[in-house]
Amino acid sequence: DTEVTQTPKHLVMGMTNKKSLKCEQHMGHRAMYWYKQKAKKPPELMFVYSYEKLSINESVPSRFSPECPNSSLLNLHLHALQPEDSALYLCASSLGSLETQYFGPGTRLLVL
Amino acid sequence: AQSVAQPEDQVNVAEGNPLTVKCTYSVSGNPYLFWYVQYPNRGLQFLLKYITGDNLVKGSYGFEAEFNKSQTSFHLKKPSALVSDSALYFCAVRELNQAGTALIFGKGTTLSVSS
């Protein structure tokens, strides 16, 4: 089973709101990732967690705050976002940081 | 830095014909190459990867890819296209640095299969 789940599927938020995206996998993977994807563009890496420790932060603005409460769960906390942050947010996981990444279906975010 | 290039924005083929989606790479050291497919409003699905070994890699849904070191290419192929293969295809290379591992994606190629 190579399933990564993400909730919610869609999210609309105002620029003053606080919301969270959730990602979950039960494959025993120890690396988890957040990507941002604009329409018709490739995914861009935001964060990497390896063994529940943040190992890569690709200079993402502080209005995005990742959290990895345990090895199965990854959150992305959102606060004071801008309209240009509207995108598809993809979560992925891999057995180890060198293994194949498997992606969830994404959360489509619209910031008004 | 590692990179991949997908020279075609769009590839059009008729159902039943063979298809090729092109990818070239630029890496230092041994390349670790991947193909993913994305259907509309969906996440990315893993198709296949090349790490080492045979230059012809077989993957999901009848897809295969040919690794060519001299031409630095990793083209995706399928002998007989289906309408349901219409989607956005991404080639990617794994980049490893002190901080960890990242996938670097090409810009993507839209495949359109007509009936």
- Average pLDDT for all residues of chain B: 93
- Number of extended strands of chain A: 11
Rg of chain A over CA atoms, rounded to whole Å, is: 13 Å
**In terms of per-residue confidence, which ranges of chain A show pLDDT below 50 for 5 or more consecutive residues?**
none
- Largest interface between protein chains, with number of residues from each side: A-B, 26 and 22 residues
| Termini Cα gap of chain A | 37 Å
Q: Give, in order, the helices and strands of chain B.
A: EEEEEEEEEEEE
Q: How are helices and strands ordered from N to C of chain A? A: EEEEEEEEEEE
Identify the overall geometry of chain B. globular
Helix content of chain B: under 10%
Main pleated-sheet profile of chain A = 7 strands, mixed
Multimer state: heterodimer
How much of the sequence lies in strands of chain B comes to over 45%
**Strand pairing plus helix content of chain B: what structural class?**
mainly beta
Number of helices of chain A: 0
Low-confidence stretches of chain B are: none
Structure description:
The complex is a heterodimer of chains A (112) and B (115). In chain A, strands 2, 4, 5, 6, 9, 10 and 11 form a seven-stranded mixed beta sheet that branches. By secondary structure, chain A is mostly beta strands. In chain A, 36% of the residues are buried. Helix content of chain A is 0%, strand content 57%. Chain B has no helices and twelve strands. Chain B is globular. The termini of chain B are far apart. The model of chain B has no long low-confidence stretch (mean pLDDT 93).
